[in-house]
Structure formats: C-alpha cells, structure tokens
Write a sequence for this structure.
C-alpha cells in the first residue's frame, strides 16, 4: 500500500465562466521512503496539488488516500491524521513564519500542537533543542526573531517546524528557489541527510530540474493542471517521452556544455482557457504546427484517448511510485522515442 | 547577528525610545494624563467662581489668560476641562475602535459570499459622513455628553471596520497563515497569535490618532449645542463660547484650541512610536541594514522580486568623482580604435552610517568592450546590482558613489551636468530588470511607452516612431507588433513583457544594454527564449551587454567574459569558457561545485546516462561553503573570503589581494593562486 494515493484528483477555483481548473484529473501514488519530484512551469498546478494534499485548498473531485485512510475533504480527526503524517515547507521562509514570534515560540507551538506527550514546558524546550540540532542550527537560535536570520538559516527553521510533527511525508514547495546557490547546496544536502536519518518521504516541487534530479528518484511533469509524464528521473534526463519534458530539459541553462536553444515556442497559455485537444500542441516542437499529419493533437486530449485510458486513468492508481518500469507514462499521441 | 546575550532585555521599550518623537509624545501625553487627574482637583473650584466685576478681561495678574463673560478664569477652566475632554475623546475612540474592529474582523473571517455582503454593508455605511451619522444618532439618543460620545463613537465605527477588514484580509492571505494552518494551528489561536499581532501596528495607530479626531468631533457637536451641556464644560464648549468673544478676549478661544492641538500632536507621536516599538523587525535597527537595496534586485530568485531600481529614483547628487582625479582622462581621445563601451575604474559605493561610511562595493574596475557580452556573477550582497546601477547613475538616495572613472562610450559620466547626463544615458544605455511588470507603466499602452523616449531624444514623428517600434518588436519576436502597440502591459505574459522591455531599451539604439537578472522571474522555457533574443541582438546590432545573474547556467549561455564578485569586490575575471571549466579563485571554485547539475548531462565521459541505478540518489553530495560572507559593517582587513577559504594563508587575513594576472589566464585576486607567479611561498 502506498503512503499517499491520489485518484483522479481535481481542484477548481471559482465557478461558472470564471472557473479555473488548476489541477485536472491527476492520479499518482507515492511509496513510503521514495522521493518524487513534481516539475512544471507557472500555472502547471504543482503547488495547488501540494496544497490540496494538506487540505489547504478543497478538492473538487477525486480521492486522496493517506496511509490507508481516505482524507478527501477531511474534517476533525481526519485533519489530525493528515497533520501527523504530512507537513509542508514553503518557498519563502520569511513569509511562512510569523514575524512577531521568536523561532523558539514558533517551534514550541508546533511541538505542543503535534506531540501531546511533550506537554510540559521542559519537554517542549528539549524537543525544540533537538529540532534545531537536527537542522544544524545553534539551539540559542530559539531566542531570535525571523528577521535576524539569513535566508538559508530561516529555511532550516521552517524545516525544523515541519519536522516537529514527526511527519512521514514532507512536501517541499520550491524550498531553495529563493536562496543563493551556495546556500541552496547546503539545504539540499541537509534534506538528503534528513531523509536518510528519519526515513522521510519527499514530494518535491520545483521548477528547477537539477534540484529534482538531486533529491528525487522519480518525477512527474505537469502542464496546465495535467500530468503529462511520469518517469524515473534517470529516464527523464536521458530519454524523456513527452515533448514538453524534452523542451523543459533543453531549456535548463547548464553551467557547462552546449548552449541551449529554445524549443518550446510562446509562453505558457492562460490556464483559465486551456487550448483544445492536447494542451501543449500550440507550443509543441513536434506537434501539429510543426509536422503535418498530426491533427490528432488538435482534436483529442491524450488524457481522454480511449486507447490509452487503461494505462493512464483506468487503474486505481498509476504513477511512478509503483516502482515498476511500466509505471512510466507520457500523455502524448506521438511520444518521443516511440517506434 | 546579535546573540541572545547581547540583545536588549526590553526591546519594546528600547525601540520606543529610539523611535523619532517617541519620548516627546510620551512626555506630552503623560503630562496631559496627570493634568486630567489633578486638574479638576486644583483648579476645579477656581474655574467655577463667577466674578461679574471682571467679565471679558484680556489679561491681569489674577487671570493670566483673562476671563469669560461671567468673569471666570480661562486658564483654570481650560486646565480643569482636560479630564472631561480626554474621557469623552477616549471613550468615543474606544467605542468606534472596538465596534469597528469587531465588525471588520468578523466580516473578514466569514465565508466568501457572506464576506462580500458584509463588505458592501460597511461600504454603504461609509457613504454617510460620520458627523451626519452622529447627528442622526444624537437625535435618537438625546443631546448631552453621553449621547455625544456614543454618537461620535458609532459614527466613526464604519471607517474602522473597513480598515480592520482590509488588514485582516491582507494578513490572512500571507503565506505564514497558510503554513500555520498546515501545521495544524486552530482558528482562535490563529486569530490571537498570527492575525492580530500582525495587524496591531496600523490599528493601534489608527485608534490613537482617532482620539484627537473624536475630541474635535465632539467639539463640533458642542458648537451645535448637542454635546456637553452647561454647567459641565469641555474644551469644545470653552472653544465655542470663546470664539464668540474672540476679538475681545482671544485667549478664551486660543487656550482650548491649543490644548486640542497639543493632545492631537502628542497622540500621533506616541502612536507612531508605539507601533514601531511593537514591530520586532525594527528592534535590531540602528541604521537600516545595509545591503538591503542590493538584495532587492539581486539573488532572490523565484517570485518576481522587487526590481529595486524600478523604485529607485536617479540621485542627482551622486558623489562626483574624486576632484583630484586624472585630468587627462576626460580629454576625450578620438582615437581610431573604437572606444570601450563602458569603463569603470575604482568604483566605491558607500552607505553613510553612524560608525562611518560602510563600503558596499569597493575598488571595482572593469571594461566592457564594444559588442562584448560581460557577465557579472555573484550571490546576494556581492554588489553586482549596485555596480550596474552606478553606471546608470540610478543609485537610491543615501548611497554615495566615488570612482576614478565611469565612462559610457568614451564619455565620462561623473562630471557631466545633469541635463547632459540624462541625454547621454537616455541614448547610450538601456537597462532591464528582473520584474518587467513593475518597470512598465501599467496605465499606458505599450506603444506610447515604446515611442515616448525616441520621440523626445531623437525628435521622431509619431508615425516614424511607431514604425521603428514595430521593427524592434519584431526583433524581440513579438508577433503582430502593430496590435501589441495598442495593448496595455497587463495584457502580455511575463515573457512578452520582458521582451517588450528589451525592445523599449533598444529603441534609442543604445550601445550598451545592462540586463539585471532579466530571466529570474520567468519560466525556464521562456527564459530560453529571452536569452536567445539577447543573443540575437548582440550578434545583429553589436549591442554590448552586461548580464547580471546569480545563475551560472544563464551566464554560460550568453557571456564572452565573466566577472565574479564577492562581498563588494571582483575576485576573478576571465573568459567564460576558461573560467567555468577551470576556475582559479577558491570562491569561484566553490560556487561552481555547489551548483547541482542534471544527472545524465554531467561532463561528458564521467557518468553515462542510464547507468545510474534507479532507486538511489544519483548525484554526489554537493559542495558547500562554510560560514557566510562578511557584512558591510564588518571591517575585514584582508581578503574577504579568507575566513571561508580552505587555502587561506596568514597573509590572506592581513593584506588585501589585488586583481592580478593568473597563470591559467584571466585575473584573480588571491595570494595563493597567483603566488606561483610572484614567487610567493604557498603553505
């Protein structure tokens, strides 16, 4: 049984003419002890998906199962079930900590909320010390306010707070995007180390493929709310199947080696009005605009393609988490590398 | 960073005392409160003694401020009225604050639909002037002090309600609220510990400021005869009666008016200092932390940051160059060789502070050749953005620049008169920043923004300018340029906005384009497009580019030559290929080693794609740099990287290394690396 299963999950903002389907029919399984990256550009719905998992935004349809329990639209004890198992770390640590409270108070609160055994003040303080040491901060850091820390240090505090609950799954939402590279390296190393020591599972959201490559074993690629490819990282980097994954890879400016050429044309469309058919077709380098005879892309959404439905959406859950090679898929009528 | 031992025991008190006007406000307010307590006890009797022998006195030894129509002492009346006035003002303000904030926060806590209705209700009650509302309420409650207080209090409540609702909504949408919810913080606690403290500042200020407002409003009711009824009296009634005889006994009106003004002033000072004191961000102040202007534009990737200079106004009084500088330099040599596009020599940017000026950029010198692309790479606080702003003479106010030379296309900028300077910069230099949206005027069409500059600087007609704009938009790959001219900035996506900004910069055909983190706020696929546009422009127009980035990958895409900056100094300079493949300075080495690379696309020959067993993390542990860069207020006598450097020798901490030619090519500011050339012994 997977730690986390998403079954045809959709998230909608607004209603009627102004409705925006931020996450559209996503199914995914996350096995305990693995790390899965969610890759995509702005508007891909990756952050919304994460927020839906921790119930910060309600799901419109579909089912979320966490550790064997259906937590869709959780209330009461089910919310507690989620909080005990899933915690989230956000992109901007300064924005995600209350500026009016010391780090120690914030951490002690998180400990008190999540660990009822540590009810006494002394126990809490001991646990706060432990948490600070876990993220390699001086325990005296507890007396300071968030604005007295550097970006890297305060992100460690945010990680410590997330760990206070003793979660099994940590959702990392662009945790290093606001940091300098040398600081990012230290945080990434810390995250890898914590995963080994605490046996954590990561769901790692990033627009930076190299961060995903460093932290995760497999990745799912999202585009305009849909999952377009799910694949072990090694395969993603060597032989992506979806043209969008290819163009993402080609766009990463590498420190060494060849200069990149832009392979995706235009910008990400407004997710409120996704293009018909395959949502990627207006930008696709091998799509109908580049190659004649590929009208299928204009007419049918590959997610709804009957021929593929079984492998994509038919089963209860398909995704990279299953670990099997068959777990990879690409929502494309003409996947790259196909005969 | 202050340790717990060093920090003040009473940060709130300390911040209050340090806030401008805090002590004045507190002193005045304390005086008023004492007066309110003792006033009626001391002068209460004297104030009511009528002496019909001396009505309308202006001034006499017994009555320093004169007497009123019944011969009562004006000074005594004014002083003993303090109590009633303050009690009325405070009660009215308290009523409106409690009722208003209560309604406002309650509305903000409602579901979306109910909140909409609540908001409309608050807004429609705001459309009645508070004093009208108060008159209406007085009519119901009845005239008198009690009625006036309730009426004024309730009349002003809608304003507070809207204020509170606005703040609650905006604080509620901040990320730490979401993360607190994710941690499992409950509703009540969320309100207590997260929402209210973060709203406190403006609400406290508004509440206190309104005490003075309430006093004035009640005086208004007094004037209409609806407020305090005789024989009771507050400053409002004194003022009302005093005004009637203002030409005879001016002090009868001036004294209460002065007290009202004094109360208002002291409350505003006090409130402002209090709201500062309640904000822990301002506790560790002194002068504002240096490097903040720098950080705004630099490093912070991710969310479209504040492209600092968008807000930065050109500082007309940027320090002129060293007056004793080389005199021959400004004699423009019209040599046959094309002049360097930009020459910067000995640039120093300082922030004035209590302990003497702090250098944010120190001793930076470089040349940008015509048609070259120069990358400036560094982390937050390295001074890369400040350096570029100094070239454009755009440094924000308190910063001071000194330089031996800052030349643009052979013209020395530091000694130019302002009018000439604007022209040279307007035609010779274009700058684009991280956040294109904040650099564009949201209220004006792309077309007029594109053409305004050239119409002014080059005197083109409207149609000529439009034709040129269309051509430029084509060059930055905006399809259907004619239509694009008629659209507003928000109608373009981020990538298009940035390309329009580039087109705008190119309109004047500048020889130099400075691009400060131009792609940091963009998606990778769009970033690739913008980088291509920049590359095309450099190739086809020969525009020299200074590309500032924290991203070594982006630098690699575009640059011919690279400067590496660290803590305000250039530590290494060299050709891109050599520098990225074989970095010399220990900092450059460490920086490159800390960048994660895509597995499978590592250096050719090291790891073959697909050979990485799935299920394990492929990449080796990233190299990190211990410690942190020195802050500008720390005086580092030697190399600023020495404390973090694995190779540091004793000389490094004592003496500052200069940028010197390295054996491998390029220049390096490091004793250890260049030791081989100078014959220095390396440990």
């Amino acid at each position: 049984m997977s730690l986390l299963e998403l079954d045809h999950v959709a998230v909608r903002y607004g209603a009627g003419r102004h409705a925006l389907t931020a996450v559209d029919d996503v199914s995914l399984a996350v096995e305990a002890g693995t790390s899965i990256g969610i890759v995509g550009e702005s508007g891909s719905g990756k952050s919304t998906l994460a927020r839906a998992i921790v119930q910060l935004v309600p799901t419109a349809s579909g089912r979320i199962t966490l550790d064997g329990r259906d937590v869709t639209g959780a209330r009461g004890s089910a919310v507690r079930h989620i909080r005990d198992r899933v915690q989230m770390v956000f992109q901007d640590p300064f924005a995600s900590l209350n500026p009016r409270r010391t780090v120690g108070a914030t951490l002690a609160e998180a400990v008190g909320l999540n660990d009822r055994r540590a009810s006494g003040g002394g126990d809490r303080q001991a646990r706060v010390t432990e948490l600070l040491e876990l993220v390699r901060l001086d325990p005296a850091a507890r007396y300071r306010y968030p604005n007295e820390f550097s970006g890297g240090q305060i992100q460690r505090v945010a990680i410590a707070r997330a760990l206070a609950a003793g979660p099994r799954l940590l959702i990392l939402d662009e945790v290093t995007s606001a940091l300098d590279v040398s600081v990012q390296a230290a945080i990434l190393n810390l995250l890898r180390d914590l995963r080994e020591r605490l046996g954590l599972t990561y769901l790692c959201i990033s627009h930076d493929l190299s961060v995903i490559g460093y932290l995760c074993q497999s990745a799912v690629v999202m585009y305009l709310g849909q999952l377009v490819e799910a694949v072990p990282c090694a395969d993603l980097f060597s032989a992506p199947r979806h043209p969008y994954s290819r163009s993402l890879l080609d766009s990463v400016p590498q420190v060494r080696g060849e200069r990149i050429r832009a392979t995706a044309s235009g910008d990400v469309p407004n997710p409120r009005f996704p293009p018909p058919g395959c949502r990627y077709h207006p930008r696709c380098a091998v799509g109908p605009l580049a190659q004649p005879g590929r009208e299928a892309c204009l007419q049918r959404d590959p997610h709804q393609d009957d021929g593929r439905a079984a492998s994509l959406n038919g089963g209860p859950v398909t995704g990279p988490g299953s670990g099997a090679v068959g777990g990879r898929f690409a929502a494309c009528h003409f996947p790259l590398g196909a005969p | 960073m202050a340790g717990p031992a060093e920090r003040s025991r009473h940060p709130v008190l300390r911040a209050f005392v340090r806030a401008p006007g805090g002590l004045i406000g507190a002193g005045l307010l304390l005086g008023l409160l004492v007066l309110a307590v003792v006033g009626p006890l001391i002068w209460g009797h004297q104030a009511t003694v009528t002496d019909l022998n001396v009505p309308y006195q202006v001034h006499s030894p017994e009555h320093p401020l004169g007497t009123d129509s019944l011969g009562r002492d004006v000074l005594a009346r004014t002083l003993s009225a303090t109590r009633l006035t303050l009690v009325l003002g405070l009660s009215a303000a308290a009523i409106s604050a409690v009722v208003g904030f209560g309604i406002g926060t309650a509305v903000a806590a409602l579901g979306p639909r109910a909140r909409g209705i609540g908001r409309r209700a608050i807004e429609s009650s705001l459309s009645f002037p508070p004093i009208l509302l108060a008159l209406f309420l007085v009519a119901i409650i009845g005239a008198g002090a009690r009625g006036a207080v309730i009426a004024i209090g309730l009349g002003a409540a809608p304003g507070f309600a809207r204020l509170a609702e606005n703040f609650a909504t905006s604080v509620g949408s901040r990320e730490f609220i979401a993360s607190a919810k994710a941690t499992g913080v409950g509703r009540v606690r969320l309100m207590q510990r997260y929402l209210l403290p973060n709203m406190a500042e403006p609400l406290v200020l508004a509440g206190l400021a309104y005490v003075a407002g309430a006093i004035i409003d009640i005086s208004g009711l007094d004037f209409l005869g609806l407020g305090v009824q005789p024989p009771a009296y507050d400053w409002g009634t004194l003022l009302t009666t005093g005004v009637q005889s203002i030409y005879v006994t001016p002090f009868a009106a001036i004294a209460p008016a002065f007290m009202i003004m004094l109360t208002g002033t002291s409350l505003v000072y006090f409130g402002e200092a209090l709201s500062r004191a309640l904000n822990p961000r301002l506790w560790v102040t002194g002068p504002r932390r240096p490097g903040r202007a720098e950080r705004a534009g630099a490093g912070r990737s991710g969310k479209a940051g504040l492209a600092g200079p968008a807000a930065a106004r050109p500082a007309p009084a940027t320090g002129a160059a060293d007056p004793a500088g080389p005199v021959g330099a400004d004699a423009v040599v019209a040599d046959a060789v094309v002049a360097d596009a930009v020459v910067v020599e000995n640039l120093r940017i300082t922030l004035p502070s209590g302990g003497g000026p702090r250098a944010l950029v120190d001793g930076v010198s470089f040349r940008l050749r015509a048609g070259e692309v120069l990358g400036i790479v560094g982390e937050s606080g390295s001074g890369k953005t400040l350096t570029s702003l100094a070239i454009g003479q755009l440094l924000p106010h308190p910063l001071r620049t000194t330089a031996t030379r800052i030349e643009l296309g052979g013209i020395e900028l530091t000694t130019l008169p302002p009018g000439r300077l604007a022209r040279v910069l307007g035609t010779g230099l274009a700058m684009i920043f991280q956040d294109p949206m904040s650099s564009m005027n949201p209220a004006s069409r792309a077309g007029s923004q594109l053409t305004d500059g050239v119409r002014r600087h080059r005197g083109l007609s409207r149609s000529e300018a439009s034709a040129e704009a269309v051509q430029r938009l084509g060059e930055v790959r905006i399809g259907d340029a004619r239509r694009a001219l008629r659209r507003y900035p928000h109608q373009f996506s981020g990538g298009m906005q940035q390309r329009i900004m580039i087109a705008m910069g190119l309109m004047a055909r500048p020889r130099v384009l400075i691009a400060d983190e131009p792609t940091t706020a963009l998606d990778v696929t769009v970033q690739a497009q913008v980088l291509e546009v920049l590359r095309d422009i450099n190739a086809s127009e020969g525009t020299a580019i200074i590309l500032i980035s924290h991203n070594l990958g982006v630098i690699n895409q575009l640059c011919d030559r690279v400067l590496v900056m660290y803590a305000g100094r250039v530590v290494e300079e060299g050709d891109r290929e050599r520098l990225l493949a074989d970095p010399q300075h220990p900092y450059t080495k460490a920086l490159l080693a800390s960048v994660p690379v895509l597995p499978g696309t590592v250096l050719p020959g090291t790891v073959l794609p697909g050979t990485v067993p799935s299920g394990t993390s492929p990449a080796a542990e990233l190299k990190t740099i211990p410690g942190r860069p020195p802050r500008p207020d720390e005086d580092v006598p030697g190399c600023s990287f020495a404390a973090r450097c694995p190779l540091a020798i004793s000389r490094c901490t004592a003496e500052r290394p200069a940028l010197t030619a390295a054996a491998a090519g390029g220049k390096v500011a490091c004793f250890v690396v260049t030791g081989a050339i100078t014959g220095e012994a390396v440990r």
